[in-house]
Each structure stands twice: as C-alpha cells, then as structure tokens.
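Side project, low priority. Logging it here so it doesn't get lost.
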Amino acid sequence: MKRIWLIVAASLTLSGGVGAQERVGSGAPTPSYRPGWTLTPTFGVAETYDDNISLFGRNTAEEQNNDYIATYFPEVDLHYAGKHTQFGSGYTGSFLDYRSHSGLNRWDQRGRLELRREENARVKWFAHGNAAAVPTTDLIDLGGIPFRRTGATTLDGRAGVERADNVSAFLRGGHIFESMSAWRHKIDERLALGADYSFRRAAIVGDLEPFNLHSTQAAIDYELSPVWSLSGAGGIVYMESTPTADGRTGPAYRISLQRHRAGRTFHVGYLRSFIPSFGFGGTVENQQVNVGFRMPLFNSRHFYLDNSAVFRDDQPLTDTTEQLPLRSLRTYSIFGWEPQPWVRVEAFYARVDQSSLRAGGRLDRNRIGFQIVTSKPVRMP
C-alpha cells in the first residue's frame, strides 16, 4: 500500500527560543528507557581554556582576555514510557568558575518538557517546550545576532500532529508564531515526493508592526542505499510588505545528505531562507552550510571522534540602521572515551568566528579542554 504522510506543526517562540548550552562536549551518555518511570541523575566536571572570555573584537585587550574555567554541571532527567504515551522532562545547570576573573562566575541553566501521544495507528501528536538562560550570545543559533557577553534568556514551544493515511537584554524581545504542513506520497520503498508549506509571523520589539513570511516548496526524500539517504526541497518564500520594508519574493531551497552505518554517521546540508532577526530586529536572508561526522576509533566502540561545522551568512532585508550583515562559523571537535555505558571522558576543541563585514567588526573565540560525565538511570516503582 502506498502511503501519504501529512504533518502539521505549530510553534510559539519567545525571545528567540533555541537549544543552547555553555559546555562544549557532547554531554551525558545517552540514557536507556524501559517501560514505566525512569529517573536519570547526571553529574560532570570540565576544565576549559578560553582565549576570549569577553567576546571582544580582534586586537582588543587580548593579553587580559583569557582564563581557565572550571565547570560543574548537574543534570536530572525524568522519563515515562507507556504503551501509547511518552513523557520527558529535564533540568541542566552549568556553574562556570573563572580562575582569574571571578566576577564572570555564573550559571547556565536549561529545562525542558515534552509529551508524545499515539492516539491510534494513524494519528500521533506531540508538545515540546524548553527554556534556557545563557551567559553569551554565541551559544544561540538564530539569525542576525552578534556574539556578545550580554547573555540571553530564551523560551520556546512546539506542538504538532502526524497523520498517516493508506491510499493509492542585548537581544531585542519579541515572539514568533510558526505553522508548517508537510505532505509526502511514497512512490516506492525508496522514493517519496511531496510539498512543504510554512507560515511564520514575527513581532520584534521596536518594529512598527509584525511581518509575515510564506514559504512553499516541492520536496523529495530518497534512499540512495541502505546507509545513504538524500532529502531536498525547493520553491519560493514571500515576505509581505511592512512600513519598514517592501514585499519580497525569493528562492528558498534546502538539500541534505546523510549516512548511517555501524555507529558511523555523516551529514552535510545547505539551506537558504528568510528568517526573523532577534539581534536588531527585522528580517535577514539566511544561507547556511553544515557538515558533521561521528565515528568509532581503533576498531572499538569505547572510543569515538565527533566533528561538526556550521557556516552562516545573514544579510539584512529591512531598513533597520543598526542591522548589519553577519557571517559566522562554528566548529567543534570531540575525542571521547566511554569505558562504561554510564561514564564518558572527552577532550574537546571549539572555535567561533563572526564578522560584520566592517572595520573592527570581527571576533573569534577558541576553547579547549576536557570533561568527565557520569550518569545512571534508576527505575522508579
């Protein structure tokens, strides 16, 4: 039987919801859940050298702008697995203890809630929310945000329905409402064709009125082989006119390639779209390239290497005098050892670069260190 997939999702984002965290390593070992309630406490420590603790531009106080940072991060995860219901919640905190600049000591905190429900064989729905308080804006993956040590507080939520039918502060405040519909028709066991439509309405504090974005794309998902898969979409995005910008229509497209085999993963992707800017308000044209891979080392499942890089190019589209074009690059590398399923030891290196394409508008940050994380799931009656 051929199958059509229809996915409808809506999300509300306050102050630019993101997933963000201060530490660079991959975090706690992946918890294993059994039916019923499971409580997983986690604790970790890390030592990091940071060569730009203030996120100053290049050639600015470089001799006084580095430090060693001890990080302590407690976590707790509560999960319920039932026949038709999945519930999850968690809290993660990271206390940063600067060796020389103790005035920068602070907490990075995150929390999450999620609920998934299978009503029947055809209908599933979910709700998800998370919050974060982060000390630096380079931890936020949103368009149009210059990297600064001013911190940010974020809150976001999503909800969606999936149905299968058998047929033939520094940041300017604001909110986003987003809805998305995706339709897929499975041609055969390897190929699915369809269409995506999304509507996004964003209101930024200081803008005269909200602006609306519409995107319509034709989509394809294809399994090249048992280990390789390709997905892509292409179409147009339309931004309605506002008092600060004329209406615009432009191309929107994305393509990604993934490989999964025996503990080895690889992905590379490219996308182009219009997105709201929470740095200075307005809208930016965003282009993004990402690549990453994870692999075991020494023919052992206990050692692994994890690498990732993301390049973003944000060009302002609205007439906001403060808004600047921004180009940023994030990279990280992790060498890890997992002697037991409940403990990880990792060495890491991370770098961020950003340029506003003007004199003195470039900064970079390098961090290198190690961390030890341990966790142990506990079944609850």
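Brief comment: Confidence is low (pLDDT under 50) at residues 1-22, 164-176.
Revisit when time allows.
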